[in-house]
Fold:
Amino acid sequence: MISREHQPVLLAEVINYLDPQPNQNFIDATVGLGGHLRAILDRTAPQGKALAFDFDPEALSLAQAKLSQYKDRVIFINKNYSELKQVVYEYKFSPINGIVCDLGYSSAQVEDERRGFSFSVKGPIDLRYNPSQKITADYLLHHLSEEELTEIFRQGDERLARSIVKAIIKKRKEARITGEVLNEIVKRTYKRFFKKSSKVHPATKVWQALRIAVNNEFENLQKFLSAAVEVLAEGGRLAVISFHSAEDRIVKNFFRQEAKDCICDPRLPQCICQHRATIKIITKKPVVPSEDEIRRNPRSRSAKLRVIEKIKNNYN
Structure:
């Protein structure tokens, strides 16, 4: 159950940049509890349509219930957003005037202890967005090698990755690595290296890294970004909200590359890549929540919004 009202992150900013107009079509690539899409649908009435993606079937059911008044204008899709292009073609959904993608997870997922998205879980850690996935965080913690786990945590920007993994490898020989055990391992490791405690839970990046690995998030994000730019109509905009530095780097680097006419090695005497810009960057720097929003919704504190616009390619 959800104990508090869902608060979509950077809602006013997303609406400002996407600027939905009556009868336009939009996609929410990670609909969650529907906060961003509700605001978009209100502005695209009376005939604006939407595709609403969520890989989590429970989240999608909640979104359907919360957006029931718009049911004739929304197609709900229980697939990963990496499959965006295939779904767009399947439903012949066009023109697409804007796409929003919020890479955070919802309060409903956090509060369901079965899912393992909360630090309070005491049993095995799941972290799957969709129960049809075979690999769980529990499997990774007990079956991957020291080198493989260290790489996962390093990709998640965990600075004490190797020390934490050494403790996990040692502990799993004698006991199961439950959520409670993992938290204790991370806390003890941090106390060895840092005297001052942080307001952020020390296991934050470890859990994020496991979640990203379980759900193959980096690879799926790359696939989504390419598909989103391809399916957008000329002048359409893509807004992406990330919460993890590695995710933000992927988004930033992809946008920078697609905004260039040439991506060749600068040492080459002439261009051989034939790459042409497909977008222009609207937000030169990421947009972050205001202090007021962070007070109202502490989970928004690490959010970063980046926006691009599809441009006409005059070289075609």
Summary: The chain has a mean pLDDT of 91.
